[in-house]
Amino acid sequence: MLEKRTPIPVTEAIERVMKYAGEGEAETVRLEEAYGRYLAEELRADHDVPPFDRSPYDGFAIRAVDSAQANLDNPVEFEVIETIGAGQVATKAVKPFQAVRIMTGAQIPAGCDAVVMLELAKQYERDGKTYMSIKRPFRPGDNISFQGEDAKKGDALVPKGTRINPGVQALLATFGYAKVKVARKPRIGIFATGSELLDVSDPLVPGKIRNSNAYMIQAQVVRSGAEPIYFGKLMDDLDTCFAAIQSALDQVDMLITTGGVSVGDYDYLPIIYKRLGAEVLFNKVAMRPGSVTTVAHLDGKLLFGLSGNPSACYVGYELFVRPVVRTRLFSTKPYLKKATAMLMADFPKPNPFTRFVRSYVALEDGRLTVAPVGMDKSNIVTSLARANALMVLPGGTRGFAKGDTVEVWLLEDEEGSDV
Ligand SMILES: Nc1nc2c(c(=O)[nH]1)N[C@H]1C(S)=C(S)[C@@H](COP(=O)(O)OP(=O)(O)OC[C@H]3O[C@@H](n4cnc5c(N)ncnc54)[C@H](O)[C@@H]3O)O[C@H]1N2
Ligand code: MOO
Ligand SMILES: [Mg+2]
């Protein structure tokens, strides 16, 4: 007799998985390798930025008070006592009506409190000395880039769990992080199961198809910030699958299988979970596609039994695996970012299960619109190529119409959501 599966709501399924999400671990990488990784600790300023008052222009550093009387009819003259470029420090004390020729980025000489742009000064020589004159007054602080104006020592700049983008990379360099503490990428093992599966380079033969899920999942793993370990494809043979899965478990933090999870004669994952002694968290979810998604837990490791159907497999990853990965990357927002969008197509057929329709979200005239990107069936692979969102249509008795406002979960977003 076929075991009856009881569907549970998607939110409950996610909750059950997240109980076993575990915690992130830190590792150290060189700054050059940090881009795209996730910070394992908050980034704070340990010094002021900039660390000294500096010139934002090529020009002359002066004491503003000396320029007070300058106007078009009364140029004020300064003796130029030295020249400093960025990286150099003035060596002479600046006395009244003296100036230092200064370049962008150089430290403001002691005693000076304003900078005159080169274009506003006239420089000339007289009796072997260099002078410049200006025809307008400057106030203290004019054209100074002040110490700490960018960041003050102690400022919290980037929270733990942030993905290191080029800007974060710049800050890490600014604060001297030659080595960076980042989240260790969770290692996710992948098996594709199915006797019908061909390798990518195999020619098509009757009854068989190429294994696309393994490559799709590897990309999803990478997109979410984890490290895929692909163990290859398995024939639908119980003992072979069991042995392969059991031995792979030692090498990974969690394991994904695709296919073999439904109720068919050759769907062996349910038996394998039993043999392993794994606790099955659920084996039916009230969602389309991916209703057969099964998640089990064994000795602190999650085993994701994703559907063999490509669209169902894809959705299963984004809903159940991604938030676990993000949690282990120290994110406080591990879920897909949610938004609302205007539906651009009718969806008349009601469905008792919540639908996650592979869709394309666009920004049109300042508001989000959403349209499905292909046929809404779980065995469809072509629709995935253009999907940048999952449109969430709650199950129930009604369909949806063009113009309705619907929820969308964004697939390419980096920020995430805490719910
Ligand atoms: N009697 C029932 N039959 C089915 C049910 C059900 O409730 N009762 N559920 C259906 C649903 S819903 C889904 S989804 C599928 C899930 O099946 P499995 O997860 O067991 O996957 P398979 O049977 O192994 O394969 C399904 C389908 O996907 C193709 N596939 C598998 N692996 C790959 C791969 N790596 N790359 C590309 N395509 C793959 C496979 O050839 C099949 O066509 O079960 C329904 N049946
Ligand atoms: O698990 Mo199936 O995808 O609901 O079609
Ligand atoms: Mg099957």
Automatic annotation (TrEMBL):
PANTHER family noted in UniProt: GEPHYRIN (PTHR10192:SF5), MOLYBDOPTERIN BIOSYNTHESIS PROTEIN (PTHR10192)
Pathway annotation: Cofactor biosynthesis; molybdopterin biosynthesis
EC numbers: 2.10.1.1
Name the record gives this protein: Molybdopterin molybdenumtransferase
UniProt KW Magnesium keyword: yes
Gene3D superfamilies found in the cross-reference section: MoaB/Mog-like domain, MoeA, C-terminal, domain IV, Molybdopterin biosynthesis moea protein, domain 2, Molybdopterin biosynthesis moea protein, domain 3
GO biological process, one term: Mo-molybdopterin cofactor biosynthetic process
GO molecular-function terms, A-Z: metal ion binding; molybdopterin molybdotransferase activity
Gene Ontology terms: cellular component: cytosol
Catalysis: reaction(s): adenylyl-molybdopterin + molybdate = Mo-molybdopterin + AMP + H(+)
Classification via SMART domains: MoCF_biosynth (SM00852)
Keywords on record: Magnesium, Metal-binding, Molybdenum, Molybdenum cofactor biosynthesis, Transferase
Classification via Pfam families: MoCF_biosynth (PF00994), MoeA_C (PF03454), MoeA_N (PF03453)
Domain MoaB/Mog positions: 189-327
Similarity comment: family membership: Belongs to the MoeA family.
Species: Parageobacillus caldoxylosilyticus NBRC 107762
Functional note: Catalyzes the insertion of molybdate into adenylated molybdopterin with the concomitant release of AMP.
Cofactor: Mg(2+)
InterPro entries, alphabetized: MoaB/Mog-like_dom_sf, MoaB/Mog_dom, MoeA-like, MoeA_C_domain_IV, MoeA_C_domain_IV_sf, MoeA_linker/N, MoeA_linker/N_sf
